[in-house]
Amino acid sequence: APESPMSSSESVKSLTELVQQPCPAIETSKDGKSQESSEPPASESQSTTPLPLSGHSALSIQELVAMSPELDTYGITKRVKEVLTDNNLGQRLFGETILGLTQGSVSDLLARPKPWHKLSLKGREPFVRMQLWLNDPNNVEKLMDMKRMEKKAYMKRRHSSVSDSQSCESSSAGIDYSQGASPQPQHQLKKPRVVLAPEEKEALKRAYQQKPYPSPKTIEELATQLNLKTSTVINWFHNYRSRIRRELFIEEIQAGSQSQAGSSDSPSARSSRAAHSSEGDSCDGVDAEGPPEGKPSGPEADEFSSAAAKSQGGPAEPALEAGEEALRGARPSERAEPESLEDTDDEGRLRAPRQSSPPAPQRPGDALETLPNSATEGDASTSAASTSVLTGESSYKSKESSEKISSVPSTSSTPAAGSQKANSLQSLFGFSEAASSRNTRDSSLRKKKAANLNNIIHRLEKAASREEAVEWEF
DNA sequence: TTAAAGTCAATAGA
DNA sequence: TCTATTGACTTTAA
After folding, report:
1. Which of A140, A172, A226, A249 is the most buried (most CB within 10 A)?
2. CA of A121 to C1' of C1 (A)
3. Residue A177 Cβ under 7 A from any strand B atom
């Protein structure tokens, strides 16, 4: 029922169809409807995988992506969520069928869409697909059909092969998985997933606050002290940085839309203006430009803000310290795990999920939460103060680095990208002007915030490098 | 090489 | 079930 928001749906059609080709191939095979007997129920399809997009179809989609005007990623995901929810369609089905992505990826994408200008071509693809899907008048029906088919297939298999199932299962379990990657024929035991204990996470966060880009040495230390593999620590930093960035984008967008919306103030408005401080919100400002830290509020903001804040402190010694300090509150050590199956290499770090982690209810880091986010204000000094609070212990140092150094926003620039073609395509995509104007607004906001963030990051980076290289400061 | 971006896939929770 | 989270891997840029 919903969909086609804009009137221009007609023109869209053609595009839609183009895009659609791929899909059909994959899952639906063209018109939807019947077919697909062969496809296993979704999940399994993986092995076959599907890349829905591969093939020629991929090309066209890529072309579309390349020619696509700026899309309102936040708005798109919002609408997609509505449609899915209203029609009781799951992310898995939608992802595998329409986007060629797994459920987890879809969830993430829908919950934290990045702004268009921050996306690479590849990253834009799912949004273009979503837009086209939204424009397709039969979108819901097609998915429903798929759903039915899957169910049917499932039932079928269940019946027809009761006994089989066993075999199937065993086979899959035993071998399939590993094949993709490593040729280690041996036991194909999959390596257990590493699950970091809360204390470890806290320690890593603290380390991040002190140094978002730790040196290899620091990483090594952290790994040793936390009893983690080096690669785990490295991965953690990569993931954390990128996730934080995403959170920021979202907040910006939300803040922007809210403010612009003006009236409605939803509770969520937290970030924007804040006046209350109790929780930690900061105000960041959308308006404010200056605040280096930028990070505001939100629930998780605490981490961010603190993170950002942290950097400022004072005196010297970074790397090591960072590690140590971080550790201080958290003591993971206990977790030694005796049983680790494979950790032979290092000291065993892989741990089975949570059991080992004991009660870690209170993390030292909690203090963070209360932190004021002075960040907002801007200056390092403020944040510094908070920092110390946070950690409780010393203030670290990041050197004044932060002090106002050159900030070079690297990323923020957004090329206006091919606006020319864009216009014409715009209609095809069914993009409304209103939307675009809104984008503009959002984007300016976003840009500001992004710039702030970038500055911070940059400064941190610089500071970090300096520290290592020189003793900084003098 | 390093970092970022994009995903996968296991798993925690509801 | 379904969705959210997250460690790890892969690809892409610099």
Report:
1. A226
2. 34
3. yes
Q: Does position A262 have pLDDT exceeding 80, yes or no? A: no
Question: How far: A69 CA to B3 C1' (Å)?
Answer: 28
d(CA A428, CA A446): 26
Question: Does residue A271 lie within 7 Å of nucleic acid chain C, judged by its CB?
Answer: no
For residues A80 and A3, is the Cβ–Cβ distance under 8 A? no
Model pLDDT for residues A146-190, shown as the tens digit of each residue: 898 888 877 777 777 655 544 444 443 333 333 333 334 444 567
Q: Which residue has the tokens 């958290």?
A: A330
**pLDDT value for A248:** 82
* The pLDDT of residue A57 is above 90: no
The CA-atom distances, in angstroms, between A1 and each of A78, A104, A133, A460 are 15, 26, 13, 49
Q: In this predicted model, what pLDDT tens digit does every residue of A3-24 receive, in sequence order?
A: 333 333 333 444 444 443 333 3
The nucleotide closest to A108 (CA, C1' atoms): C4
Separation of alpha carbons A200 and A332, rounded Å: 6
Name residues whose C-beta falls within 8 Å of residue A340's C-beta, 6 or more positions apart in sequence.
A348, A349, A350, A351, A352
- Tokens for A220, please give them: 């090594």
CB A335 within 8 A of CB A357: yes
Q: Which of A's residues 13-72 have CB atoms within 7 A of nucleic strand C? A: none
CB < 7 Å to strand B — which of 281-340 in chain A?
none
Q: Cα–Cα distance between A75 and A127 in angstroms, integer?
A: 10
Give residue A117's identity as a one-letter amino acid code.
H
